[in-house]
Design the sequence.
């Protein structure tokens, strides 16, 4: 199966329009159409965004094999519950300290309607640790949007080594990537990954921090 057919099948599995998938990939809906019709292949950056959003590997999109349905029980989209609220997926915990694994969806959490409508493809994570406590208190629920462009100085959820994720201020330079804490605790240090180290410890942006809410009674 070609890349374009894989992308189309993935889109159809999750009942998304080409426009919605384009938002996830950070491209125009016209670009998605050209992929699905085999006129062009997507860039690796767009493929990575799609893979990260659906919790699959890039190889699941690139290689000649059938796309299988995402084991997550729901697509990552806000779900309406009443006039003033929407539910958004809570994926688990993220470290504001040592990188920590991000789990599959734990449950759906009520958020204000205007937030869900502004960031329809975002997901929540519970913040563990204190390395960002100048900005973000421990135990809050942080909203991460995988469709937002992450620029130097933004706070982002970043996957380290493929599976772990950490919340840090992100900087990308010509020779490497820096993840900076903003903590009252001096034990937290800047993490730097040069191009050579990224061959063994790949770094992938999971999304941009766009909002956070007070903690609720969730234990994990």
Sequence:
């Amino acid at each position: 199966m070609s890349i374009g057919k894989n992308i189309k099948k993935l889109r159809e599995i999750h009942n998304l329009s080409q426009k919605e998938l384009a938002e996830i990939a950070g491209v125009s809906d016209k670009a998605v159409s050209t992929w699905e019709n085999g006129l062009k292949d997507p860039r690796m950056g767009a493929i990575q965004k799609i893979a990260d959003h659906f919790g699959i590997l890039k190889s699941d999109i690139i290689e000649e094999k059938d796309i299988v349905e995402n084991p997550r029980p729901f697509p990552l989209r806000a779900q309406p519950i009443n006039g003033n609220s929407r539910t958004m997926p809570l994926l688990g915990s993220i470290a504001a300290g040592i990188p920590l694994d991000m789990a599959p969806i734990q449950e759906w959490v009520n958020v204000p309607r205007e937030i869900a409508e502004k960031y329809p493809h975002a997901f929540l994570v519970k913040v563990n640790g204190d390395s960002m406590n100048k900005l973000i208190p421990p135990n809050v629920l942080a909203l991460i949007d995988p469709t937002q462009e992450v620029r130097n100085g933004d706070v982002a959820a970043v996957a380290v080594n493929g599976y772990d994720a950490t919340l840090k201020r992100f900087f990308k330079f010509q020779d490497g990537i820096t993840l900076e804490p903003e903590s009252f605790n001096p034990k937290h240090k800047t993490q730097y990954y040069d191009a050579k180290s990224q061959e063994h410890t790949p770094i992938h942006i999971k999304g941009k921090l766009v909002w956070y809410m007070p903690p609720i009674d969730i234990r994990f």
Observations:
- The mean pLDDT is 78.
- Residues 3-13 form the longest helix (11 residues).
